[in-house]
Every structure is written in structure tokens, then in C-alpha cells.
Amino acid sequence: MKPIFILSILMICVGACKKAHYEWEDYQYTGVPIVTIDTTKSALPTRQAGKVVFFNKKDVNLASQQFSFTLEWAGFNKVTVTSIEVYNSYNKAESSVPAYPLVISSPGNQYTNIAQFPLPSIVGTNDHLYETVIEFPKTFNFTAAELAALNNVDLSAVAVNDYFLFKFIVNLSDGRRVVTFYNNICDESRGEPGDCRVGVRFKNQ
Fold first, then answer.
1. CA–CA separation, 63 and 177 (whole Å)
2. What percent of the chain has pLDDT over 90?
3. Short-list 185, 179, 203, 14, CA closest to 115
């Protein structure tokens, strides 16, 4: 009987002695965007897991090269997504860009070795609302010329490793609006469950 008595005292003490309340204890479920790129339309080889397509500046038909992706969502049987706001931007190359051809990490040989676009994904002043999607799945198709016009960019002035990027804000049926996605939600190098942005990068191959 003594061991049971001691265990009971310990259980009471654990429950009564807890003083701190941590933020993570108030977690909530969310939905995430899911993107499928059309790898067949990329001007240069890519991988689905990378969530990146490429335009090739060396091709004389650059203006007609295509970028296509399909947008869906996942709620993991916990939440319902009512709409996704789709934002678009043109961005100059980062100071350090992902290697090309894509480097696939191992073991596993599934994911790119690093994220293909900056994280976290936050809609900023450079991003403009393109469309609010309410019916899924939704497929988007653009040519390089169309994306340049959409962003008021001279296609001939675009440099290697510059990119067009699409970001997403998720609206849930309970009224919540998810505006920021961190590495634990979307990171191509780790195979995270969501795709908070997708883009097309310029190369000269």
C-alpha cells in the first residue's frame, strides 16, 4: 500500500504545484495551402518538392515560357478553409541564392537541401493581392510576359536569380486569418505539411 500512497501524493503535488502557463498550451489547429507545380512547363528541370519553376533567359522565347501551379488546402480534419488570398510580387535576387541545378538532400533524396525562397512567408508592401480563391482546386497559368506586366517589370531588364513569388493568406471558417507561415509549416528542405509560397526564378542556362 505504501508505494500507491506515495504515488498519490506525488500526483497531487504535480497538479497543485504547477504555477507557469506556457503559450504552447493554448495551441490551435490551422489549415495550410497546398501547391502542386506543373513541372512539365518549367523551362529548366525542377523537382515537385522544391516548389520552384524556372524561366531561362538564354531562350529567345523567354516571354512565352510558362509558370503553372494548382492551389488547394488541407485542414487535417480539424478546420475548414473558406478562402485563400493570393498575393504576387517581383523580387530581386537575394545575396545568397539556392544552387542550381537543385541540390537534393540525402538520405531520402526527396527534398531540396535548403528553402528555395525566403522564410518566414509574410505578405508585405511589395506584395499585391491578385485574387481571393473560394473554389478549390484552382489552377493558375502565366507566361513570363504576363507576370512581368502584372508587376510592371521590363522583362528585358530582369536579372539572373530574380524571381516572381506568390504568397498566401488563409481564411478559416471560424473567422481566423492566418497571415504568417514559419519554417515549421512550410520549408521545402524539410518536407513540411504546407506550401506558403511558390515562385518562378530566372536562370541563364
1. 36
2. 80
3. 185
Higher-confidence residue: 7 or 43? Answer: 43
CB 192 within 8 A of CB 184: yes
**Distance between CA 177 and CA 9 in Å, rounded?**
45
User: What are 156's three cell numbers?
Assistant: 528585358
The predicted structure's pLDDT at residue 9: 44
Q: Which helix (H) or strand (E) holds 138?
A: strand 138-143
**Pick from 94, 64, 93: nearest CA to 160:** 93
pLDDT classification of 16: cutoffs 50, 70, 90: low
Q: Indicate left, alpha or beta for 77 from its phi (over 0: left) and psi (-120 to 50: alpha).
A: left
- Whether the CB-CB separation of 51 and 58 falls below 8 Å is answered with no
Supply the pTM of this predicted model.
Answer: 0.87
Asked if residue 99 lies in contact with residue 161, where contact means CB atoms within 8 angstroms, the answer is no
